[in-house]
Amino acid sequence: MDLLPSFSSLAGILVMVIGFGFLIFVHELGHFLAAKAVRIKVTQFAIGFGPAAFAWRKGIGFRKGSTEPEYEAKLKAALQERGSGAAPPSPAALHLGETEYRLNWLPLGGYVKMLGQEDMDPTAKSSDPRSFNMKPAWARAIVICAGVFMNLVFGLLFFMVAFLHGVAFPPAVVGATVPGMPAAEAYALGHDHDPAFQGLKPGDVIADLNGKPVTDFLDLQIGTALSEEGTPLRLTVDRPGMKTPLQFSMVAQKDPITQLLAVGIRPPTSLQVARVAPPDSLPRALTSAGIKSGMSIVAVNGRKVARFDQVETAVTQAAGQPVAVTFQDGAEHQVTLPLRAQPEFSISPSGQLNTLGLEAPGIVESVQAHSPAQGMGLEPGDLLARVASVDWPAFDKVAGLIEASHGQPVPVTVLRHGRLVDLKPTAPNRQNHLGFSLNAALDRNFVAGVTTQSPFAALDLNP
Predict the structure, then answer these.
(1) What is d(CA 98, CA 91) in angstroms, rounded to the nearest whole number?
(2) Considering only CA atoms, which of 381, 362, 371 is closest in space to residue 432?
(3) Are 94 and 74 contacting, i.e. CB atoms less than 8 angstroms apart?
């Protein structure tokens, strides 16, 4: 995924079109090579449908549009030179290719056009001995099956190359559990009501699911998603520091996002700094200290770590104080940087973002250069007091308010250094974004809203 841009962008769409076109090319290449092998005349090899955008033919070269008119004109001129009654000249004698290779305007497929074979017209036949319909059944069968065969061969070669390069299979290790989901609530069998054995813990290894061995995290996800709704799942878990495996029984629930059955187990997080594009988009505090993509966390406060949950534990125990995080690259070069944690919301199974029903307003983290947000005067640290027509919107509602503007200027008021400041209403960009990053203002005592049926609902608080 590091290689792919977002599919919401033009570049992402272009990558998708090129990738799909390449798969079509491989399929049609199978038909083409088979047709040539059994001496069937191929008149066109095309990627896409509709009129030709560009085409190439031996003896003519590249052309915008089709080479057919020029090809036919050369054949006609050669025939006229021979005189009436003469045999038509062969393309090879005129140093012309009989096949036109073309890229059509609608990149949603492709085809190999053979003499005597028309998908849209079964009656289109030819008496030419090199036509498709004049070939024996075995030859036609080879041509028809060659596309699928080529896909299979390409798939085998592709997987060989991919696995030689390296394919990541996340191990069946618990990275975290989702609060409120079965994996966080279930007790190990034989340890009912013992808090030490409630829920799976980071670092637990899932050994089997319903008696079937689990080799990687994908096995666990598929096995859970395909389980029978309402039927308990039995998990065998190897926990670090315990000699005997633990047994858990839990009933999978529908994930609110994917709508697939799940128990709420998240895969382990890597200790490696993410590879981002462009590289300078890492936080400035990291890049200025020499932290680069690909480096890994090896210690926190001088203690070695092997899993990300160990980093999280050290940060939690620091209770908001800075922790010394040591990064290392492959050359044994180390950089130690004091970092202070910022609190974040835990997303409940219902998808609500609040603390005991209190919703936090949004605080601006960063503003993109040359963006509409920069043009309106938005600054990091601004607290959003009003967006569009909503006072003190909850931070996770701001994006929806901007999108609802449908490209019209958005009025924004911020709380800056204790004063309310009205910014210049500015229209979003083509992607309907203003160009700033936002987080929950958990370090401020402002209330954006209160959810119903929550502990604070009875207080009737206003934003």
Answers:
(1) 6
(2) 371
(3) yes
Find out whether 237 and 207 touch, Cβ atoms under 8 Å.
yes
Q: What is the mean pLDDT of the chain?
A: 87
Answer whether the bond into residue 349 is a cis peptide, omega within 30°. no
Backbone angles phi, psi at 47, to 5 degrees: -110, 120
Edge-first strand order for the sheet with 323-328 is 303-304, 296-300, 323-328, 334-339
What pLDDT shows up at residue 277?
A: 62
CA 94 to chain centre: 51
- Of 151, 145, 130, residue with least CA distance to 36: 130
H-run or E-run covering 285: helix 284-287
Q: What's the one-letter identity of residue 51?
A: P
Q: Is the pTM of this model over 0.90?
A: no
CA distances (Å), 127 to each of 115, 139, 143, 326, in order? 10, 17, 19, 77
Find the largest Cα–Cα distance for the chain: 102
pLDDT tens-digit map of 30-40: 999 999 999 99
Secondary structure letter of residue 273 according to DSSP: P
Residues 401 and 389: their CA atoms lie apart, in Å, by 9
Cβ(213)–Cβ(231) below 8 Å: no
The pLDDT score that the predictor gives to residue 398 is: 92
Residue-level pLDDT at 2: 41
Residue 112: is its pLDDT beyond 90?
Answer: yes
264, 182 contact by CB (below 8 A): yes
Asked whether the beta carbons of 46 and 162 are under 8 A apart, the reply is no
Tokens coding 73 = 């004109």
Pairing, β 436-440 against β 362-367: antiparallel
Give 112's strand partners: 45
- Per the CB < 8 A criterion, the answer to whether 338 and 233 are in contact is no
Is the pLDDT reported for residue 1 higher than 70?
Answer: no
Give the mean model confidence (pLDDT) for residues 242-260: 88
* Helix-then-strand count for the chain, H and E: 9, 23
Q: Is 26 exposed, middle or buried (0-12, 13-18, 19+ CB in 10 A)?
A: middle
Query: How far are the Cα atoms of 124, 259, 274, 391 from residue 299, in angstroms, in the given order?
Result: 73, 38, 17, 44
- pLDDT digits over 387-429, tens only? 998 999 998 889 889 988 888 999 999 999 999 999 999 999 8
Q: Which of 278-282, 316-320, 352-356 has the highest mean pLDDT?
A: 316-320
SS3 of residue 376 by DSSP: helix
